[in-house]
Structures are given as C-alpha cells and as structure tokens.
Design brief:
Layout lengths: L2 H16 L11 H4 L4 H6 L4 E6 L1 H4 L2 H10 L2 E4 L5 H4 L2 H7 L8 H12 L3 E9 L21 H22 L5 E8 L12 H6 L3 H12 L5 E6 L2 H12 L13 E4 L2 E3 L4 H12 L4 E10 L1 E2 L2 E2 L4 H23 L7 E4 L25 H6 L13
Parallel strand pairs: 1-2, 1-11, 2-3, 3-4, 4-5, 5-6, 6-8, 7-8, 8-11
Antiparallel strand pairs: 9-10
Helix pairs in contact: 9-11, 12-13, 13-14
Organism: uncultured organism
Protein name: Putative carbohydrate-active enzyme
Keywords: Carbohydrate metabolism, Glycosidase, Hydrolase, Polysaccharide degradation
Length: 381
C-alpha cells in the first residue's frame, strides 16, 4: 500500500475516534497529504495568494519560511496605515502632510523584495488609525479643524506623498494594488461619518480616487476596501459606479472584500454578495480573509468538532469562489489571508487561521486547498 494511502486509512480511524471525544486531532503534515502549496492551488485558478505581515513574523525563521513556501503576496498589517506613515514634525515645518515610512515598513518591503513577493498597499483614506492632527490647523491637535479646500489639498499631498515615497525608496515596483479608501460604508447603506466626510463632504470619496488615479503608476490597481461586504454589496456597487472622470472613465480598478467571516455566517449569503459586486465589472480581491469559530458575539472553543466545521466552511467558500473565477463570472486575481497562524492572529480568540499556534495544518487549510478528505468531512460524505 502506498504511503499516502496508509496515512489516509490511519487518519480516517482517528476521525472515528474523535467523534467520541471533544479533543483535537493532529492532522497529517501538509507534505504528507499533498505535494502542492497554497501558491500552487491558487495559481491553478490564475490567482496570487497572500498574507498580512509584520516584523513579528518576518523576523522568526519558522514563520518566515512558512510564508515564503506558501504565499507570494503580502500586505503590511499596520505599518502603511496613516498613523504610521505621517510625520507630524515635518508636516508642521513644511505646511503640508509629509509621508515618511518608518523602519518597520522599510524592513518589510525589503523582506518582500528579497523573497520575490508582490505587495498590496493598505491604506490611505480611513476613518480609523489616522491622526486627528492631520485635520487641524498647523497640524496641531489643539488647533481648529481646517476647511474643505485645505483638507482637499492635504488629501492630495498625502496620496501623492505615498507614491512618491515608494518610488524614492525603490519599492514601488513591488506593489500591484493599493486600498485607496477603507470602510466608508455602513451596513444600513449610509455613508460612515468621519473627519474626511465632515470637513470635505460626501464627495471626499470621489476626490480620493481622483488623486490616486492622478499619481499612481499604471501598474498599481486602485481599490475600495470594506468589511461585512455581503451586507453592503448593493451600496458599494452603486458607489463605485460614481467614480468616473469627466470623460466617463473609471477611476477605480477593483473592490476589496475583507472577508472577516465566522463559521456561523452563511456561505451562500457571502457568495451572493460576491455575485452582486462582480456585476460592476471591476476586479474583486479577498483582502483580509479569516474564518473565526462561532460568531462575533461569542467565540467557540477550538474543539475538534468546531475545527472540522471551520474546515468545511472554508472548503465550501473556496469551492464557490474557484468555480466563479474559473467560469469567468468573477474577475479575481488575488486572495489575501489576514495572517496564517492562530498564534499571531488579531482575532486569536476565534482561532481563525489556516495553521494553529504550532504552525501545524488545520482542517481550514485543507478546506481552502480543496482536499475534502482532510477538510473536516465525515468519511462517508
């Protein structure tokens, strides 16, 4: 009997035993189940696959090696958000927002370049993790809020500054996409309140993409990114249709679907949202995927039964996505997971990643890879 067949028989035996217990089963190593990596699986569907990164994972040999083996794209978890890239002292002395990448951002770009990773930029215009002083006179947190025209000028300087700094540092060719605006819509279809909106007005969104289109190189696709997108799909679809210049040319290339999901969420509801957004004709990317155990209001413990449920969820979700991409119904050229190990996840209490804290594979990994035998299904299914 071949080695993989023996492993399969033993694994099925363990599944039967696990049915009588809540304890977790350690799954076979990925190399024992398949000779494919995540990169291989997504490449079969014409897609890149990525993860978010920080120095916490790039500086550790075990996590760095896993990422290099499994992924080919990355997004900085925090280091390119406005709080991290805006230099207050230089902004005050120059009278305009000054973009300056910190040492972590530069080290992460260096790591990506060294390991032949493509990168997504995240993010420029956001209601969160943006310093309040950016909106005030003299860039002073005690100053009064500036007016519309000044804020438009600052928005343009911020967006221009990002692309100019990437070019100056020699890393702009790494980037294939950038989240220009993040999380501007609410689930009820209303526009989110923010300093950007209060000072500039509802058209701040149009100006953000107008400036990004003006300064971004053609090689970088411009994205709107949001969460709970399955519930906002109609609002987002209507909004992106307004992002056109005077000649009717679209200022936006794609929609980022964060896909922070839970096993209590309905897969079909999510895929229906994908279908609505696909009708815009824009590219779609899953940008921050993780699938937590349970629901937002209450995490489930990571018992074997719950981890199997997570594996089945991932199998059905990516089965639906791959089918749509392969059929040409969805334009999607990349998927990014918001981490890879439960030990480093921002939602650690929900055990949402593909590998556990020991970097061992979970049912979720095999679900994404469409290996049903190890994705948490009963042997008879």
């Amino acid at each position: 009997m071949k080695r993989k067949s023996i492993i399969s028989v033993l694994f099925i035996f363990l599944l039967v035993l696990a049915g009588c217990s809540s304890s977790k089963v350690k799954l076979p190593a990925q190399s024992e189940v398949t000779d494919k990596t995540l990169k291989d699986v997504f490449a079969e569907h014409g897609m890149k696959v990525g993860t978010c990164i920080s120095s916490q994972v790039t500086k550790k040999t075990a996590t760095s090696d896993l990422m290099v083996t499994q992924f080919c794209s990355c997004t900085m978890e925090n280091a390119m958000k406005p709080d991290y890239i805006l230099d207050q002292a230089q902004s005050r002395s120059s009278g305009k927002p000054i973009v300056k990448f910190n040492s972590e951002a530069l080290s992460l770009m260096s790591w990506a370049k060294k390991n032949s990773f493509s990168m997504r930029g995240h993010t420029m215009i956001w209601h969160s993790q943006t310093p309040d002083w950016l909106f005030r006179e003299d860039f002073d947190p005690r100053g009064s809020y500036v007016g519309r025209e000044e804020m438009l000028s600052r928005m343009e300087a911020l967006i221009r500054g990002v692309f100019e700094e990437l070019k100056a540092q020699g890393y702009i060719d790494l980037f294939y996409a950038y989240d220009v605006v993040n999380e501007a819509w609410m689930e009820d279809g209303s526009m989110r309140d923010s300093n950007w909106r209060r000072i500039i007005g509802d058209d701040y969104l149009w100006y953000a993409f107008y400036y990004a289109d003006k300064y971004a190189p053609e090689t970088i696709d411009l994205y709107y990114n949001d969460y709970n997108e399955q519930y906002k799909a109609d609002s987002i679809a209507a909004f992106v249709d307004t992002l056109k210049d005077d000649d009717g040319r679209s200022l936006i290339d794609g929609i980022g679907l964060q896909a922070h999901l839970f096993t209590a969420d309905d897969v079909n509801t999510y895929l229906e949202g994908v279908d609505i957004l696909a009708e815009t004709g824009l590219k779609l990317e899953l940008t921050e995927v993780d699938v937590g155990l349970g629901k937002y209001e209450g995490a489930l413990t990571n018992t074997d039964a719950n981890l199997k449920m997570q594996g089945r969820y991932c199998y059905e979700l990516f089965q639906g996505l791959f089918e749509r991409v392969d059929a040409g119904k969805v334009r999607m050229d990349a998927v990014t997971f918001w981490g890879f190990s439960d030990g480093f996840s921002w939602r650690r209490e929900y055990s949402p990643q593909l590998y556990d804290s020991d970097l061992d594979p979970k049912y979720a990994l095999y679900g994404v890879m469409q290996i049903k035998e190890y994705a948490g299904y009963d042997p008879a299914e």
